[in-house]
Structure prediction request, 249 residues.
Amino acid sequence: MTPPGSSPWLVEMASPSSTDRDEVFYAVPHAGAGAAAVRDLCRKVGRCVTAAAVRLPAREARMHEEPLRDVHLIADAAAEAVAAHAGDRPITLYGHCSGAIVAFEITRRLADAKVRALFLSAHEAPDRIPRDGVWKWPVGPFMRRVAADGYVPDFVLEDEELLELLVPALRADYEAIETYRPAEERKIADSIVGILGTADTAVDQRDFEEWSRFTTGGFELQRVPGGHNLLLDHTADVADVITSWSRWH
Prediction:
C-alpha cells in the first residue's frame, strides 16, 4: 500500500500499468475499518483504473490520532485530499455501510470535480438512519452489536487488548453516523448506484431506495447475492457492479 502524496487520508492500492481510462476510484470502508478492508476491492477495480482507500484517523498508521466524531469534519478533510490527488482526472467513489454516508458527503464537496458516479452498499439513506444511541452502550453490548453486523469475529469480544485498540474508532464512527444530519442542499448531481445484498436483513430495501431522493443524476439499484457484509464476503460481486457500470457509462 502506497500513500499518494503526503496525505494521511488516502492510501493508493492499485495503479494499472496501462489503461485508456485515466480515472481514479476511491473506497470508504465501514465503521472502525482501515484501508486494509477495501484492499481486495481496490485491487479488483484497480485493474482498470487507479484505486485508493480513504483512511480515517485512529486506525492503522493513524492509530496515534484522535478519532473524529463528526461526518462533516471527516468529509471536509477527505474531500480535500481526494481533490488534490485526483487533479483533473474523472472520479468514482464507493462507500460501504457507514462509509456510504461519508462517501456521499465527500461527493457533495466535489461538486466542481469530474465525479462520474457514487456507489453505495448496505446503508440506509441519510434520513433513514436508525438512531439508537449504540455508540453510548457499555463495551460488552456495543461490541456484540458490532459483531452481529459482521465486522469483527467473536474471539475479539474476549480479547481485552484488542478491544482497547478497536473500541475508540468504532465508537467514534457509530457516533458520527447516528448524530449526522445532511445539509439542506443535500442532493448531488452525480449518479448513485446502490448495491444491496439479497439476504441483507440489517437494511430495509425501502429505506435503501430512498437514496434516490438524494441525487438529480439518477439512481440505480443493483441486487447481488449475500447479506450485509458485501464488501468482505462478496468482494468480486461488488467489484463487478462497479467495473461493469463504469465500462458502459
Remarks:
- The chain has eight helices and seven strands.
